[in-house]
């Protein structure tokens, strides 16, 4: 019989079918919590498969949880998982719950253990609880009592943070974390948002539908909300501000750094669906006397998305948008073909009629397709660079309205 298994050790582990082919990753364990006194029965696991779809796998189909991998039997049902009313996601909903243990000692749940009984049924049996630290920020004593000895686990209104839950999500891409957050209750979603750092939360907000963005932003302290919006990509931040009531948007703009607020206000003046409304105001811009070595150093910056790293934009000073006169672009491949000491101005490309801020979505899409590009400069009537449009910005507008919601729409599991 398998021994005690702590959930934090299996979350994120690969799931394999009987042939040894990888199916996906374990993201949570589904249990039914009836009361504090009765150990929750494990119903199954949530597996994230190709395309970020989350599916349900009954625990009876799991043949092994040992050795850092999960092995299943039979064919995985690919219908999207939808949590039923009587079900609880052990990791997402019980980690970080405030509870009390023997002697009314308060603490926080940081892990859970499951075991198989003699009838081959799995149950949550033990709860790892960290006492509140008493002095100098030190951690309190950790305990692992049985489920029945812990008070507060069945209380859905319990105060709850998200520190330990987020540790299980450290390796997730922002889009995958957004997908996971979107499937939680509004209460749990907001608890997670309050624990995320500004930059990480900004990345997640960019991947959420507008309704969830507004919901989360609305409960943040205004100062923090302004900081988070400032960390977002310009075009995403402008879209979010445009979906807020004008007074709320103005309140956030007033709390931003003046330069950031100026960029946002400029983007908000462009009509929806134009190049100006989709562009970022922070592409890689270099002066004509910059070398290829300098250009390569800039496109290597880890925070730069691949589409923006695909080319640099050469302009006369100032090199912040709106720039001086735009001279042309240099593609990444061109940077790799010439000596590092070559000036970027010697290899610029400017033989395309680049889009204007008022250019339509159709015009921008046609240019990207015709010239096999993933990014385009946006030039004003005086030939100054005002921003850049990337392929992901265009796809956001080409896909049907509400595509983010439909990509996570649940279908009941059998």
UniProtKB/TrEMBL annotation:
Extent of the signal sequence: none
Domain CBS: 279-345, 348-406
InterPro entries named in the record: CBS_dom, CBS_dom_sf, Mg_transptr_MgtE_intracell_dom, MgtE_N_sf, MgtE_transporter, PRC-brl_dom, PRC_barrel-like_sf, SH3_actinomycetes
Keyword Acetylation: no
Annotated PROSITE patterns: CBS
Keywords annotated in UniProt: CBS domain
Annotated TM spans: none
Pfam families the UniProt entry points to: CBS, MgtE_N, PRC, SH3_actinomycetes
Xref: PANTHER family: MAGNESIUM TRANSPORTER MGTE
The protein, known as: CBS domain-containing protein
């Amino acid at each position: 019989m398998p021994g005690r298994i702590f959930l934090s050790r299996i979350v994120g582990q690969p799931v394999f079918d009987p042939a040894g082919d990888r199916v996906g990753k374990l993201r949570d364990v589904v249990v039914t919590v009836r009361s504090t006194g009765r150990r929750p029965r494990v119903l199954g696991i949530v597996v994230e498969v190709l395309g970020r779809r989350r599916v349900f796998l009954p625990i009876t189909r799991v043949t092994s949880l040992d050795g850092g991998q999960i092995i299943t039997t039979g064919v995985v049902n690919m219908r999207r998982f939808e949590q039923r009313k009587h079900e609880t996601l052990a990791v997402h909903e019980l980690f970080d719950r405030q509870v009390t243990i023997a002697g009314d000692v308060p603490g926080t749940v940081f892990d859970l253990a499951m075991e198989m009984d003699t009838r081959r049924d799995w149950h949550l049996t033990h709860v790892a609880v960290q006492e509140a630290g008493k002095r100098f920020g030190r951690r309190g004593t950790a305990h692992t009592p049985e489920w029945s000895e812990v008070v507060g686990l069945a209380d859905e209104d319990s105060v709850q943070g998200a520190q330990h839950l987020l540790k299980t999500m450290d390796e997730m891409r922002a889009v995958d974390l957004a997908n996971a957050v979107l499937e939680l209750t509004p209460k749990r979603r907001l608890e997670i948002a309050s624990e995320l750092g500004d930059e990480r939360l900004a990345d997640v907000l960019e991947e959420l539908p507008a309704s969830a963005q507004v919901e989360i932003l609305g409960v943040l302290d205004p100062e923090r909300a302004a900081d988070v919006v400032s960390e977002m990509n310009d075009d995403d931040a402008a879209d979010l501000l445009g979906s807020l009531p004008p007074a709320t948007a103005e309140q956030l703009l007033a709390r931003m750094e003046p330069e950031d607020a100026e960029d946002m206000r400029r983007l908000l003046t462009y009509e929806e669906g134009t190049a100006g409304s989709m562009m970022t105001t922070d592409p890689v811009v270099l002066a004509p006397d910059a070398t290829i070595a300098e250009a390569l150093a800039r496109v290597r910056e880890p925070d730069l998305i691949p589409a923006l790293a695909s080319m640099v934009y050469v302009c006369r000073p100032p090199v912040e948008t709106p720039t001086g006169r735009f001279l042309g672009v240099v593609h990444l491949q061109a940077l790799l073909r010439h000596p590092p000491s070559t000036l970027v101005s010697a290899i610029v490309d400017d033989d395309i009629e680049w889009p204007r801020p008022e250019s339509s979505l159709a015009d921008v899409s046609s240019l990207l397709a015709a010239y096999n590009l993933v990014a385009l400069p946006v030039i004003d009537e005086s030939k100054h660079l005002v921003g850049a449009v990337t392929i992901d910005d265009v796809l956001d507008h080409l896909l049907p309205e509400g595509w983010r919601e439909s990509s996570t729409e649940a279908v009941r599991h059998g």
